[in-house]
Each structure stands twice: as C-alpha cells, then as structure tokens.
Amino acid sequence: MLNQFRNDRGAAAILVAMSLFLLMGMAAIAVDTGIAFSDRRQQQSAADTAALAAVQFAKTSLPTSMCGAYSGANLAVCRGAEEAMTLVDANLPDLRYDSAAWAECLDPTRPKEYTRYIKDITRCISFTDDFHKARVALPGTAVETTFGRILGRNTIRVSAFAEAGFELVQSAEVLPFAVGPTGQNSNQTCLFANSAATLNVSPCDGPVDGNFGKLDVSIYGNSDLGTSEECGNAKPQSKMAINIVVGADHPLEEASESVGTVDDIANCNAGPISTNPADHLHTQTGNAEKGLFDGLLGSISTPAREGRLRCKTAAENDPGGKVSKFCVDVNNNFPESLDDTPLWVYINSSDTHVSIFGSCSGVNTRSEMESCLAEWRAYGAHPVSSSLFTGAIVQAPRFGAVPILESDPGNGSGDYDILDFSPTYIETLYLSCTANTCAVVFSPGEDVDPIDPDCPAKLDPGVTTCGLVGTGNKKVYAMTSFMLTLDMLPEDVRKDFPSKPGTLTFNLSR
Asked: Any idea where the domains of the chain sit in the sequence?
C-alpha cells in the first residue's frame, strides 16, 4: 500500500501545470479578444462615419487636395474617398492608415453593385453607379496579443466595413403647381387654369395666384424612380407630365433651410441626384395641355407609368404605391377608369376631437367638404394627437404636396423662392370647355348625372351634353384642389412631410 501511494507522488503538480496552461489560455482569449474587440469598435465607428461622409461628399465641388487630376464620375469617387479617408484618420489614433495602406486594400467581399472606385487610390472605398450608396472597408490592423503568444498567436487581424446610402422619404410627392400665400390660406384653390377667357367657374375664374399654376420643375434623373435627366427649358410638356405622375425626382427645400439660393434649373446638371436641395423655382409659360393630360389621365414613357388619376386597384400596378379606393368610367372612353375617391372618405371619424366639428359629419359633396375644412381652420390650435384625416390619405393618388412660393406668382415666367410646402388633394377637373361652359366636370365622389349615368355629375346646370366623346376635345382646362394644413394630418405624416423629396435621409448599414 505504501508503494502505491509513493507512485502517485507528483500527480498534483501535473494537474496544477495543466490547469495553469488552461487558465492562461482562457486569459488569452478574454484579454486579447477584449483588446481586439475594443479596437474593432473604434474601427467600426470610423468606418460608419466615413461611409456617411463618402455618400454625402461625392459629387460636390468643394476644394480638394488630392482630386485635381480627376473629372466627371472619377472626380466624384475621389471626393467621396478623400473625405472618407480624412474622417478615418480623425477617428483612429496615430494616423493608422496611410496612402500605401489604402492603395493595397482590396475589399474582396465587396458586393457587385459597388462598381465605382479608383484602384490607384483604393479599392476599399466604392460607390454604386448612381452614387446613391457608398461602401468603406478599412485596410485592417494586426493587433498584438499579450497572453496569446503563449499559444503561438502573436496578432489578431481586426478590420471593419460600413455601407451608407440616402433615400427620399416619401409621404407625398411634390407636384409641379405654383401656389402663393393667397392659395395656401384658402380651403380650395385653382391649381391650373388654361385660360380664364374660356372658363368662368370659381376658384378658376381668374388668375388668383397668377400664371395659372404651372411650375417648371427640372428632372434630374433618379434611377430609383426611373426618370431620365431633362434640364433647362427643354421638353416642358414632358417635364410637367413626369412631375405630375412621379413628383419632383430630386430634393427641394424651403429657402430658409440653407444659406444662399439654389436655383432648380442651374442645379439640375450637377448629377443624377443633387445633394444640394433646390430652394428656387421658375414658373412655366406656354401651352401645358398635353403635359397636364398625360400626367393626369394619359401616361408617360420614362418611367412607363399611367397617369396619376388613372385607377389603380392594387399597389403592384403602381410603383409609386398610390392606390385608388374607388374608380369610375368617364363616358366609357378612357382605356381605364379614373380615380373617383373623394377627400371625405379619409375623415378620421373615430377621433373624438374631430367629432366636435358638426360640418365634418356626414360629408357627401365638395361644398360640404369645404365647409368642414373652413371650420377646422377657424378652430385654431388642435391637439397634437388629433387629425382630421387618417394616415391612409398618403396612399391616395389625389394626395400630394405643392410648393408655396414667397409671393403669389404673376403672369408670364418668374423666379420664386420656396416659402413652404402644403398638403393638397386634387379635386375637380374641367374638361372640354368652350364659351365659359364645360361639357365634363369630373368631381370625385359626386353622384353621376341622373339623366345619363355614363356621364360625371354636371356642376354647371347649363351643360346639356356629356362631351368627351372618343374623338372629341379631351383637353383639361382647369383643375381645383383642396388646400390642407399639416395639423389635419396624423403626427407621423407631418414629420415626414412633404416627401420632400426635400430632405435626404442618410441610412447606415453593415
């Protein structure tokens, strides 16, 4: 027995040695991994900041120290890369990545969509073809270990990457109709009138806001919306139709938001999407009949979309997501039905605050709806949590935003700063008008003509024919719109209004 115990001597020492080795291994994992994670957090923060800067500074013409030899798209890539590298240096100690480290960086996991980079500068700062997204992958650092050396691991490779892009928050499209302070403060305004000489219906019986409502909004070219660049004074009819269907395809903002004037036409060719929102617009002169008809009732080719008021019964049939609640045939001569959704179907009847407005109960006509709006405006301050309309209104094709100009636009062409944006709801169309009468007055939600059910209701009792025959005059002579206020909309809609596209929202992803 004694010899047996003597043979076990030294076993404890072996177990202790093995335990120490295991403990040191665990310490290596804990300590060295902690150091590596701490370094990676620093690098991730640097990559995040750099990616956001890259997508914002690409396509700008700010003074540069390294991009003088480049032009066009390569200049945009260089500007974004230059700003990204500067911020990486600022966020990491000891100027960790020099130009040689960037030049040697390859980013082997870069997604295929990031096609733009300059290999002589770095492959690790790249952009999508339309410059809507930027990717920054850091060259990486070998972090020295402490306990890990015992296990034969002298360094841990640490890096990070980030992707950032911008999108245009959509709650309503900005439409190409000029409204001044006079129109903004009314319950219903004339968004467009072809000529007061052939029309004598309020509020389109004269140039209340001047120039009969046309705005010359340029098309910058936005791959997300499918638009192609149309700058300057070219193709006014096409620009108007596209802007009616799609809305402004680039950022617009109030003149008070930024220092200086950014002219929409001059800013147009700065790139597919300018990161410098325009705050100065021009009114449009000349004949807009075709542009108005195509944008409202016809179609456009780029992008291939039907007119704004052509009936959409499912979201997949309309890339813009605007869905009609109700549709109606107009004399069976349009290829499809037109949207016939009246504003009052969106009244928030379940809101206890709304219920106190007697004129907003049981609304069934345009005049009753106008009385409801007038009562809401006259009330004064409303509870923030209340709204006259439900959030579903943003999906209506008749709902949109219009720029409010600094002053009522005058006749002819003119230049105006954007004072504000106002929600609006397209109301009545006047078609086939001659000698101060209109054969077709299409007011959504109004009862059809009791004598001829195929005709829209005639608000003018003197009209005796349906008009709008297959080969007849389909000209849109005028269009009225309900002018809404932000406090009529739910709080979440107010925060994102308008679509602008006025405010660019930059999103970070990894």
From this structure: 2-165, 181-339+397-431+463-504
pTM: 0.68
Q: Which of 318, 340, 342, 341 is nearest to 329 (CA)?
A: 340
Asked if 6 and 128 touch (Cβ cutoff 8 Å), the reply is no
DSSP output for 139-172: --EEEEPSGGGGGT--EEEE--EEEEEEEE--SS
Q: What is the pLDDT along the chain (510 residues), one digit of tens a residue?
A: 555 555 555 556 565 555 565 666 565 566 667 777 888 889 999 999 999 899 888 866 666 778 888 888 898 899 999 999 999 999 998 778 999 999 999 999 999 999 999 999 999 999 988 787 899 999 998 876 665 565 566 677 888 999 998 654 445 689 999 898 988 889 988 888 776 555 666 777 765 444 456 889 999 888 778 888 898 877 888 999 999 998 998 888 899 887 889 999 988 887 667 667 889 999 887 777 888 889 998 889 988 888 999 887 665 455 555 788 888 776 544 445 788 899 999 999 999 999 999 999 999 888 899 999 999 999 989 999 999 999 989 889 999 999 999 998 876 778 999 999 999 999 988 877 766 666 677 888 876 555 555 555 554 545 544 443 333 456 787 888 999 999 999 988 888 788 544 444 556 666
Token reading at 318: 């309309």
